[in-house]
Write a structure and sequence with these properties.
alpha/beta, Rossmann fold, globular
Length: 287
């Protein structure tokens, strides 16, 4: 199996990553099932990367159907240390306009019924996610995006993650604004929590596609609108990634890769062997 240092998760509209050298397509099985799609591995510059379309090629998975555990676990099996995620989002602020890029620093979870932890089945771990996005990787993405992107780039913001697949009602959208939320999407919270448990640095490049439904324009948010605007930003997103990967920091000036160091509540002697085996890629250096 090839190894990769950087993982790239493509969101709606971004189903392939241009500019990769030494391409190879590989399928990976995990204890949590199959990932969304086959991984495309290769290099950007001299950095080995692995690309995965979140919703699969052809966009086959609802946000709640994405096999998040398998996706993140597979990145861990590949040796990935950094994950750059691309997300389509709606804006809840007048100054975060469609076609802008936002590097959020906070998450608010409004999903229901999703499994968002690798742990359980005899092993309890409580991982801190007060700062859910890696600050080192987020700052790096912001700096590079400002340098190479024609879009307006914003650093910081609270991403509220809803269940989907429906878009918000006007009442919901207005309440989210009152809560102080800045952008809205359907996927990042689950990925961020699982990446933290896997001790992988994770950051999101959120591509604004619309003003949600709170905006005074009264324009109805449609899937066609979202995809049309996202496709305009796909070239920009790929350009940022191609520039960000070769210059990704060599040192992790963050605590992401220490997330499990004090997280376990279960005595080692009582953890079932089958659970240890299933989680081997995550806990082998921690438990």
């Amino acid at each position: 199996m090839p190894t990769a240092k950087v993982g790239i998760i493509g969101g709606s509209g971004l189903y392939q990553m241009d500019g990769l050298a030494d391409l190879q397509e590989i399928s990976i099985d995990t204890p949590f099932g199959s990932p969304s799609d086959a991984f495309i591995t290769g290099k950007i510059g001299n950095v080995p990367v692995a690309f995965l379309p979140r919703h699969a090629r052809g966009h086959r998975f609802l946000p709640a159907e994405v096999p998040y555990l398998a996706n993140i676990y597979a990145f861990k099996l590949l040796g990935v240390e950094w994950i750059i995620s691309v997300n389509a989002v709606g804006s809840l602020r007048s100054d975060y306009a469609p076609l802008d890029i936002v590097i959020p620093d906070q998450l608010f979870d409004r999903t229901t019924g999703r499994r968002q932890s690798f742990f359980g089945d005899g092993l309890v771990a409580h991982v801190g996610v007060a700062e859910p996005f890696c600050p080192t990787l987020s700052q790096h993405l912001y700096t590079v995006a400002r340098q190479v992107s024609p879009a307006t780039v914003h650093m910081g913001g609270a991403y509220i993650c809803i269940q989907g697949p429906q878009f918000s009602t006007k009442a919901e959208s207005k309440v989210y604004r009152q809560w102080g939320m800045d952008i809205i999407g359907m996927t990042a919270v689950t990925e961020a929590k699982l990446a933290r448990e896997a001790e992988i640095c994770y950051a999101t490049m959120a591509m604004v596609t619309d003003y949600d439904v709170w905006h005074e324009s009264g324009e109805v948010v449609t899937n066609d609108m979202v995809i049309a605007n996202l496709l305009k930003n796909v070239v920009t997103a790929q350009s940022v990634i191609r520039q960000a990967v070769p210059s990704i920091p060599s040192v992790h000036n963050c605590q992401c890769q220490m997330a499990l160091s004090a997280a376990f509540a279960t005595e080692k002697s009582v953890v079932p062997d089958v659970t240890k085996q299933r989680l081997a890629a995550i806990i082998q250096n921690r438990f």
